[in-house]
Amino acid sequence: MKTVLIVDDLIDVRLSARIVLEAYGYHCLEADHPDSAITAIRQNQVDLILLDMNFSQDTTSGQEGLAFLTQLKSLNYTIPVVVITAWAKIDLAVQAMQYGACDFVEKPWQNSRLLEAVQKLLPVKVNNKHIETSPLAFETNNKQLLEKARRIAKTNANVLITGENGTGKSMLAAYIHRHSQRSAQAMVSVNMAAIPENLFESELFGHRKGAFTDAKEHRKGRFTLANDASLFLDEVGCLPIGLQAKLLRVLETGEYEEVGGSTTLKSNARIISATNADLNKLIEQGTFRRDLLFRLNTLVIELPPLRERLSELLEFAAFFVESHAKKYGLAELTLNEQAGKKLLSYHWPGNIRELSHVLERAVIMADENTIGAHDIVLDTQGEESGTLPLMSLEEAEQKLIIKAISHFDGHVVKAGEFLGLSKSAIYRRIEKFNIQMKEI
């Protein structure tokens, strides 16, 4: 069981995070101050830290949180940190990332956003299966797609899954793994966009103790962990061009060396990758290697956006309503005709993920056993007008960034991907426009 240390001076905040995370298979420890957090780290195996940025010193500067991040580094701890703060100024979040934090979540958070931030860095297993944060609605929809996925699953060929954000690429990857001959082993996942360049080899191939300053112990890489299993490379299109050759070598030969090691190891991991990017376009732009694409796309599955699958939408909706009702211990709920029409009239830019979130809220807010149109809250801002107000390109860019971050529940990296921006590019624009979370 993976352990998350929650560092916050407010007991109700710690309890709130604990309830969410323990429900999904994490073991939680609590600390009310950075000093007690260091004690907890020394006495326990901690796999991830949720860190408030402000304690007794003041309420807004975040200096205590930054000092804690600095202390972690000086003590040679490499525990991933997710920053949590009620005063989530973007410049402070950027500072925290520069000090070593991996992500940030604004308080009061949405449980799905908190869980997403943690699971991205720290997936958990229960009974040798990964817990899935979203119900696998594929089980009841698109029989032709599933038949293709099951045929593919029986092979050991590499698979590339393409499609817009929110179409269910990670769910389909898990489905393929579960129907493969490797299903007895857990699928290993890694978000390629989240790996810092200086930790790429260590993350994927592992390192020996003493290989570099923070290498306090021997660590196995993802290719080692995925031997005889499936390795899911999410957001593979975000991998910097300078790192692609290192990935290509192991895909071509199965061979790699741990950082600081001299022995050549081999992995027979089956590669399932996913991207929302047009890799052929990236090849034309010189930011993606053609030979790497050939290694990844032995078999390709394209997931169409939800707006092109409206014939399946009500089946998806019924599945999510039932799933969310069970999750919250509620009585059986159904969608009435007006609610269904409202769902079908929307364009669903966030695809299946957005549908799930909309129906989760509807399930919680429904007064009776029937979900009506008034329970369905959609982001229809700007849909009623076919024209855009006249504004400068900079104004339009700023408004799009704010809207995208809001749409993805404060997840800056996902907003950037949706807009076609890299992680560093969207943070640069956020700083340029001085965008603050309170604006979103």
Automatic annotation (TrEMBL):
CDD domains xref list: AAA
Annotated GO biological process: phosphorelay signal transduction system; regulation of DNA-templated transcription
Pfam families xref list: AAA_lid_14, HTH_8, Response_reg, Sigma54_activat
Keywords attached to this entry: ATP-binding, Nucleotide-binding, Phosphoprotein, Transcription, Transcription regulation
Modified residues (4-aspartylphosphate): 52
Name of the protein in its database record: Chemotaxis protein CheY
Species annotation: Pseudoalteromonas luteoviolacea S4060-1
Domain annotation Sigma-54 factor interaction: ranges: 143-364
Domain of life, source organism: Bacteria
Keyword check for Ribonucleoprotein: no
InterPro entries linked to this entry: AAA+_ATPase (IPR003593), AAA_lid_NorR (IPR058031), CheY-like_superfamily (IPR011006), Homeodomain-like_sf (IPR009057), HTH_Fis (IPR002197), P-loop_NTPase (IPR027417), Sig_transdc_resp-reg_receiver (IPR001789), Sigma_54_int (IPR002078)
Transmembrane parts of this sequence: none
Annotated ranges, domain Response regulatory: 3-122
Keyword Transcription: yes
Any GO molecular function: sequence-specific DNA binding
